[in-house]
């Protein structure tokens, strides 16, 4: 089922919401009737913030900022989530598809380098319809799909021709870690299949004259304290599989949340030595297309206020 040629987007969206299986959780709930599955949202679009964001990779934010739209709810639900304030689906504004399209156009008018969709997986049909409408009304900047990586390839196909840049996480290779921290034992295989579809759609990296990405895939990996070994496995898989077809962003910004106070590992920050070991390993593989973070980024705040700005 495609958004193309759909004269009645509401009916098209309803097909997916009536028995929702958009994400790998396959809840099957009727979100049209207010039922909520793992993502903790019903069929109504809930957005917590839409504003220029300066803390993405340099080729995404640039000087002007990325036009970032934070969706409420999440189908993964990591125990250490830094966006817990909105990932539980309890905070945000309810808007229509038409209003979301206007949000995209307003961000473009603010000179955003792109439209950055953060955790939109449980709203893919609504988002696809809004992008189609916005493009018909003049949206021309690249669209970024910013994701946990825990996606169904069938759902991603609904975005073909609408998304230019995929910015997924690849969180774990170890199934036990995925189960323990995200209740998703199938994370690695699911993320591999999703990434394959993302690369197929986006193609090789392309940049404009300012160094801002126009097309392509950047895969993020957040190093967790005490888990350098698994991070090396993730990095090696990404590089051995895709080489310079993608960029790999190695992140050290893990920030302990109060809920993790009793966890012997996740209650602390990543050490400089741990991160150095991971970066050195990536370089030893021959990684060139990558991003690293400098300094103690866990002291910085990458979490904006989710106060409904721009919605």
Return the string of H and E elements. Answer: HEHEHEHEHEHEHHEEHEHE
- What overall geometry do the principal axes of the alpha carbons give? globular
How many E strands? Answer: 10
**Low-confidence regions:** none
Helical percent range? 25-40%
Q: How far is the first residue's CA from the last residue's CA?
A: 29 Å
**Assembly status:** single chain
Count of individual helical segments? 10
- Rounded mean pLDDT is 93
- Strand percentage lies at 15-25%
Task: Report on the biggest sheet.
Answer: 10 strands, mixed
Rg, alpha carbons: 18 Å
Structural class given helices, strands, pairing?
alpha/beta
Describe this structure in words.
The chain is an alpha/beta fold and 311 residues long. The chain has helices at 9-17, 58-61, 84-87, 97-109, 124-136, 153-156, 175-182, 187-202, 228-242, 272-285; strands spanning 45-53, 66-71, 93-95, 115-118, 143-147, 165-168, 206-207, 213-222, 247-251, 290-292. Strands 1, 2, 3, 4, 5, 6, 7, 8, 9 and 10 form a 10-stranded mixed β-sheet that branches. The chain is 32% helix and 16% strand.
Q: What are the key terms here?
A:
single chain, 311 residues, ten-stranded mixed β-sheet, 32% helix, globular
């Amino acid at each position: 089922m495609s958004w193309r040629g759909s004269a009645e987007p509401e009916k098209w969206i309803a097909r997916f919401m009536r028995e929702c299986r958009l994400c790998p959780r396959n809840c099957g709930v009727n979100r049209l009737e207010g039922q909520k599955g793992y993502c903790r949202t019903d069929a109504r679009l809930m957005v917590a913030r839409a504003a220029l964001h300066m803390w993405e990779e340099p080729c995404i934010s640039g000087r002007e900022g990325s036009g970032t739209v934070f969706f409420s709810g999440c189908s993964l639900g990591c125990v250490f989530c830094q966006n817990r304030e909105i990932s539980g689906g309890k905070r945000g504004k309810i808007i229509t598809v038409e209003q979301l399209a206007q949000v995209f156009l307003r961000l473009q008018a603010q000179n955003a380098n792109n439209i950055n969709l953060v955790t939109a997986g449980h709203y893919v049909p609504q988002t696809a319809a809004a992008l189609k409408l916005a493009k018909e009304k003049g949206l021309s900047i690249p669209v970024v799909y910013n994701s946990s990586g825990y996606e169904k390839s069938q759902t991603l196909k609904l975005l073909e021709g609408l998304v230019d840049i995929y910015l997924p996480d690849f969180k774990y290779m170890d199934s036990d870690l995925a189960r323990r921290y995200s209740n998703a034992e199938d994370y690695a295989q699911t993320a591999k299949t999703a990434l394959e579809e993302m690369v197929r759609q986006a193609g090789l990296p392309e940049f404009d004259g300012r160094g801002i990405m126009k097309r392509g895939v950047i895969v993020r990996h957040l190093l967790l304290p005490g888990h350098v070994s698994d991070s090396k496995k993730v990095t090696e898989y990404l590089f051995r599989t895709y080489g310079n077809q993608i960029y790999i962003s190695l992140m050290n910004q893990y920030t302990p949340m109060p809920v993790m106070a009793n966890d012997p590992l996740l209650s602390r920050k990543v050490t400089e030595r741990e991160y150095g070991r991971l970066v050195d390993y990536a370089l030893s593989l021959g990684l060139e297309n990558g991003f690293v973070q400098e300094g103690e980024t866990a002291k910085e705040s990458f979490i904006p206020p989710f106060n409904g700005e721009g919605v």
